[in-house]
Amino acid sequence: MGLPVLPLQSLYQLFPGSEVFMLLNKKIILLLSSLVIFFASCAKVEYSNPLDPKSENYVGPDSSADDDGDGIANIYDKDSKYYKEDKDTPVIELLGKNPDTLRFKLSEESKYNEKIEQLKRDFKCYDPTDKTVDNSDVTVDVNVALFGGNNYNIKYSVSDTSGNYTRVIRDIVVIILPEDDVVPPSISPNTDVVTSDTAIINIGTTIDYLYYVYIHDLDNSVFEIGKNVTLEGKDEVDTDKVGVYKVKYTAEDSSGNESSYTIYFKVIDDGGSHSEAKIFVYYDGEEIQNGHTFEYTLPDVSFDLSLLTSKAFETVNNETRDLETDLDCDYVKNEPGQYHATFSIKDRDDVAPKSVYIKVYEAGCDTLITLELNGESKIEVEVGEKFEDPGFTAKMTKPTEKDVSSRVKVTPAPDKINTEKEGETTITYEIKICDGARTISKTRTVKVVKSNEDDTEPPEFNLKHSKNHDTVTVGTKYSDYKSRDTGNTVMDNVDGKISWRNVTIDTTGFKTSEAGKACSLVYTVEDAAGNEGRAVRTIAVIDKGDEGLLDKYGVPSNSPLATMAVSFSKVTVEGTGGPSSTNIESLRFDLGQNGTLNSFSINTKWSSSQPDTYHDLKSKGTFKFNQINPEMKLTSTGLAGFDGEYYVVYTSDEEFVWVEKTGKFAIIWE
Q: What letters, b where the CB count within 10 A reaches 16 and e where it falls short, cover 249-266?
């Protein structure tokens, strides 16, 4: 706003003819011009950054708000009573954890997304100086993926109206959890003692039921009878009585998955201190003697096979026990011929059977001939050995008694049997009667086998832990170690696989009284030719303190390694002699179904001495993860101290633990 300016003509009219007034008029004009410029400048002040109208300290476009003269509006400081430039940054306070750990299964993507959305909102933003910002002004940048790792983050950033900038970072670790366990435990037989689902038990033997099966599960459960293993039929097993007993195993893992397997325990008499078993044969309730003959002529055949019965028993510890018998009979009703009915004790080959004969003649043919083989019906001869036929006897008893062996036809002729190579030949002996209407026959099997003299190679042992990496602590007894001494096999070049039950174990060298020394077990076995195979296992004896890591982490584990796909970002080393963990960044381990190793690698920090930061272990070792006692051997890894042999286990605390096989040190990944 300006003041009115008087025209010169008006001044002259006020003061006519006066130079004094003329001079005064010029001064007045200069004074008034200065005042106009001054008031005009006060009326229009420009600010390049005016105060935010929301500020409680805002006092309007007043020159006093720019007390330093830089054209920028400032904040009124109540303490100093001056306006000052706003240099204070806004504040972002993170709510919840920082760093935060997200634990999800791959199938829980929706829950994972919900968690990320929550973390994007979990903060509080304000500006303590001019109060011009809040949560809505914050920019959130998410750098997180549903994949195991520790290099993720969420960034929160904001600027106030004065251009002050703040950024806060929340570090995120993502751990991929195993999927829900829906796979039942695996139950398989110990093939050293179980064949075709049957285990042979000597009478009077105590059964260790878990010895006959292998049970494992992906969750590394420890299976115990009465805890997570039930045995249906166990109470019916009587090892003091010959027979076959059915036992059904049912195992349940920690997730409630179940599986079953059935083994038939066959209790046999091993020739111990029992009395001889006896068989009695009856016909229609009347006892008949061994070898009794029933004779009939068609059509008058009154023989009834259902009336032919037997009983058998033996005495054990002065107690009489009934035995089950089997009947083998070739009788054909109303057909002429000579038939056998033989009773034997079921599952016993140490008791001679009892037999009776049924002879049925055709009407008009009263010829009766008996044909019997001399010697055994099954004979073995060695390769190159000549077969000598023990012969046979054929006798006619009706209508006259005489030897008719010359009428027997033998096919093939015994002297034509080839004994130069292994194999079997069946010889048939037959004689015709009643003008050729009937034939009586017998057979004998000749088996040509390799000579024992040619078999000079002893059986070979394949001992688990044969490289002598096994250890025991001071004072360990063999009875305690025996449960670990499993998985061994014996093979022979002629006899094939030899049952472990035939192996003799000499434990006299199993002395564990002093640490630092070695104890030993000696295994011996003979093949059918009498060749003795021998193997020695040497075991290191260590202090209990050294064994602590093996005990602490429960290795070797009796279950295969669990399926997992996990990245581990923390590593520690326990014990002595282990590698340094200083330069280790992370471990990536992906073990699929059926023990398939998809990836196995270590990332290290960069250094001039070790510029390569990625180390693929999958191609640097041998791995036995899908078995009981899971283990691995690393070679040429390029990582100092990592080469070696380890037992491995994934613990319930989500730790992947490698324990050096002698227990000196353990590498724990988290």
A: bbbbbeeebebebebebe
